[in-house]
Design brief:
There is one protein chain. The protein is α+β, with helices and mostly antiparallel strands. The protein is 23% helix and 30% strand. The chain is built from five helices and 13 strands. The chain has helices spanning 21-37, 63-75, 104-111, 115-123, 217-222; strands at 2-7, 10-14, 42-47, 51-56, 89-95, 126-132, 139-142, 157-160, 164-168, 171-174, 179-181, 184-188, 209-215. The protein has a seven-stranded mixed sheet with strand order 5-13-6-7-10-9-12. A hairpin with a 2-residue loop joins strand 9 and strand 10. The chain is elongated and about 55 Å long.
């Protein structure tokens, strides 16, 4: 672990250079401990793939005091009260079909697999939420099975429909709103990924795990899915 200053009231805590489950676990546990032990000083915490951005109240403590507190909190023994070693699993229903999976056939062709095989491989994986970014609630999930990994589109779409599930390299993501994007879209979930009236805002958080469940067109519509958005 290393700590580097960003400005007078922000620092970055690094846990390594490799994206993976082990590093993600370190980030999750450290985030939980900082929230537990430094809630009186910290204004914001932004966990990511291998790091945490820490912003504190400059009127309460200077950089040197904060760095000492950060190190002490992260190095402290976890008494289990934060649940840092347990990951919440969120199941998301997905309608996998070219009707909404705008690039599903391209992914099948790239992988040399049938549609059923691509859907099975994608939905049987348990994904780790590594980061939230790009747009509110946009969760970067890894790792996608190498058999169905595919590069981003060379030309991004101007509009990707809300709920679209896409692949880019060995990552998977769900578009929480209609935005531009270049991920390869293979399906759509009817699940709302952002709740503007909740304290947490996003349905999933860094450290959570996500599992996709393939559903039919009828179930997608019953759950409130939208087929019209383009």
């Amino acid at each position: 672990m290393r700590i580097e200053s960003v400005n007078e009231n922000t620092c970055m805590v690094y846990f390594g250079d490799q994206i993976g489950a082990e590093t993600a676990g370190l980030v999750k546990r450290a985030t939980d401990r900082l929230r537990r032990d430094m809630s009186d000083l910290i204004v914001d915490l932004v966990p990511s793939y291998t790091s945490i951005l820490v912003t504190w109240d400059l009127e309460q403590a200077d950089r040197f005091a904060i760095v000492r507190r950060v190190r002490a909190a992260i190095d402290s023994e976890d008494d289990g009260s934060t649940g840092g070693d347990s990951a919440r699993i969120v199941e998301l229903p997905v309608y996998y079909d070219p009707e909404v999976g705008l690039d599903l056939e391209d992914v099948c062709e790239h992988a040399g697999l049938s549609r059923d095989e691509v859907v099975r491989i994608h939905s049987e994986q348990l994904y780790q939420v590594y980061a939230i970014g790009f747009a509110p609630g946009f969760a970067y999930l890894g790792s996608t099975d190498e058999r169905i990994a595919i590069p981003r589109k060379s030309t991004p779409r101007l509009k990707v429909p809300t709920g679209s599930v896409g692949i880019a390299g060995t990552q998977t993501a769900i578009y929480p709103s209609c935005t531009p994007g270049g991920w390869q879209i293979i399906g759509r979930t009817p699940q709302k990924m952002v709740d503007w009236d909740s304290d947490s805002l996003a349905l999933v958080q860094v450290g959570d795990q996500v599992r996709f469940r393939a559903i039919s067109r009828d179930e997608f519509l019953e759950l409130g899915g939208n087929l019209d958005e383009l």
